[in-house]
Specification:
The complex is a heterodimer of chains A (about 140) and B (about 400). Helices cover about 5% and strands about 40% of the residues of chain A. With about 140 residues, chain A is mainly β. Chain A has two domains: about 45 residues, no CATH class; about 80 residues, OB fold (Dihydrolipoamide Acetyltransferase, E2P) (Beta Barrel). Chain B has two domains: about 140 residues, 3-Layer(aba) Sandwich (Peroxisomal Thiolase, Chain A, domain 1), CATH 3.40.47.10; about 220 residues, Peroxisomal Thiolase, Chain A, domain 1, CATH 3.40.47. Chain B is globular and about 60 Å long. The chains are: A mainly beta (about 140), B alpha/beta (about 400). Bound molecules: zinc ion.
Chain lengths: ~140, ~400
Amino acid sequence: MEYKLPFKEYNKALRKSRLLGLKCNTCGTITCPPKMSCQECSGLDLEITELSGQGSIVTFTTSFGAPQGRENELPYTVLLVKLDEGPWIMGNLIDMETNKINFDIIGRRVKMSSRVYPGDIYSGGSASRPVFSFID
Amino acid sequence: MRKVAVLGMGHSQFCFNAPKTQVELLSEVSLDAITSSNLTVKDVQAAFIGNALGTIAEGQATVQQFAVNDMGCHNIPALRFEGACASGTIAVRDAYMWVASGFYDVVLVAGVEKATALGTPLATRCFSMAGDAKYEFPAGYTFPSAFALLAHLYASHYNMPLAKLKEQMAAVSVQSHHYASKNPLAQLPFEITAEDVLKSFMVSTPIQLHDCCPFTDGAAAVILASEEVAKKIYEKPCYITGVGLATSGQLSTQYKYLPRLRAREISVDQAYKMAGITPQDVDVCELHDCFSIASLIAAESLGFFDFGTAGEAWQKGETKIGGKIPINISGGLKAKGHPIGATGISQLYHICKQLRGEMVDLGVQVEGAKTGLVDTLGGDGCLCHLVVQR
Ligand SMILES: [Zn+2]
């Protein structure tokens, strides 16, 4: 059985700041990042759908220690964002200085664009990642 | 299904920069487990080895086959189990099933890791491999950041001021160091204060250095045997009476349940049901405190405290000896250390020591402990539980 939305295709769209997900024709749930099956009902009748990339911050952390090879990115802020279509995705916050970021950013509205993680010897190539900036 | 006993055990010093190789560490703890079971290497029918990062730390894959032939268990089946930080515990669970089924009577379960050989930057990279590589690591997701995300989410979800949560988290680390100071096997056997925690280096907001377990080298081993064998050769067997294992996908897809981990609640429920017990029956628990916040999340899902209240329990001493449920009396991952492939077996070792009443001399015996629980978390989605009784 063929994978509806493989990483390669998802990643190619994300590189252009387009966020693709899967809509389940059985239960209506949106799955993003993509999977073989609906993350709610395991259904296989899925169609590719473009998401708004807009949502609210549900949690965050600003990291001061990095994995080997990513020290030059420090400090950076990781977010979980609840998308307007339902699913949560992980990304980075880009338009605020890290020393100004505090608990009050939880709940704030954000919109998505993307940047590329170039990869390392373990990663099997590069990957786009969602990055977020405040809407208001 | 037959009853399965834990017989002899072995446990290395947990430390930075262990001078021995993974094979040497495995052989030492395994021979301690075999001989203290009143067995010889000829009696061991199979070996189940927990090891997560050995391929990178030493450039050594298939460490299990080299270890068993090194220690003298020539040509026996040897399997490696990899479930990140739960590698050792899932090895115990599988070994349990093979003995319970009647296929084997005597098996060795051991775990090893040399995480400090990697150095902190590479170790951080390797630990992050247990998160989603394609959809989450590109954002710089690491294990401190995983629990930092959960800490902020916990404060937000339970509507708790962050400063209050930080004090609760500090109380967890203070208790773990207190008990580690009495454990000669511990990597960090010294006391710390809440002030030490709150002044330590900020790793990933709101997680500070003393909210984190260290990288650790170490090994541990146990012999599992059928009840029939145990009764013939061993004076004080403990019995594994319940096991559980459940998994989840990447962190973001667990959104309907966070900050709780659904796999933990499924797995521990399997273990409780199998043993025919409830959380109230547990006398002593070793749980997966890779980060201070992880202890609160775990203790609530294991059924010891109401959701959002575990931190208060630590502050009131309810998790100490004499409290409602003594937790991590070994010093936990935080201060005893966390050599990931060995961690679950070390947890089991310390629970069995409690059930056998062998912690009196160290001054950390939970008096009359009859039922113990092991809780281990691998990555952000592999949860394994063992109920052990005497
Ligand atoms: Zn569905």
